[in-house]
Amino acid sequence: MKTGIPEVDRTIAAVAAAAAERHGAAAVARIAASTLSTFESPVWENERQRPTWVHTPGLTARPFWTREQCGRLTEMITAFEAGREAIAAEIQQLDTSRMGVPYDHLSVEPEKIRGWKNLFFFKDYQPDVELLARVPTIKAITDRFGPAQLDRFELFLSVLDPGTHIPPHFGGSNAKLTLHLPLAVPEGDTAIRVDTETRGWAGGDMLIFDDTFDHEAWNRTGQPRAVLLLKAYHPELTVEEVGVLEMYAPLSAKVYRELLKAKGRGQ
């Protein structure tokens, strides 16, 4: 796991040594064997799954996941589903004028996703304390679950304006799953395709998928589609491996943002 940037690679080695001390060498082994897709030549275990940021070996790959397949994540998923109506009501009271900037994405050009608008409760592992105070149900759930069940790299309200199409692309890391809690889903043609399967957002159930498969989403209705988007570490990672990834998280976020800025993105 190397970038070819001396300063960054020295930090990667230092974090690995510290992680081994804290979590044990076995917990570091699989993470250290990961490939940084942006900097190294990846060898895909599954040609249909191509993480753009980091590929961690030995993890089950499937486009869509069920709650029952998510192991220790299930309690967290159930908590968000149970709080869905309260979350939707709290979000309706927010000032959404801050949602004008599209999601910063390494593999999708900003001009192609102007209708994908977002309001972040967590970004780069940092909470928006003021905003979370206004959505107590989300705050209570995020306070309840630790990193082994809920990743805090990003958690946000994700809205697709009418007529918006997020083009096909691959997500960043197969060590994480993406989860959508449906909040406002208009009738009509609004859906997401992951690999070869297309699904909508049914009822109050969490939609769980691996965004490192080719995927796209669209809203061809006359009303906005809104979901709460969150991330969770792959359930086959051990708690100790999650601990190692959390130690790398600040460095990963820093390098990721620098790459975005080099591309003229990442405000």
Automatic annotation (TrEMBL):
Residues 85-235 form the Aspartyl/asparaginy/proline hydroxylase domain. Coiled coil: none annotated. Transmembrane segments: none annotated. It comes from the Bacteria. Pfam families: Asp_Arg_Hydrox. This is Aspartyl/asparaginyl beta-hydroxylase domain-containing protein. InterPro entries: Asp/Arg/Pro-Hydrxlase, ASPH, IPNS-like_sf. It comes from Nannocystis pusilla. The lineage of its organism: Bacteria, Pseudomonadati, Myxococcota, Polyangia, Nannocystales.
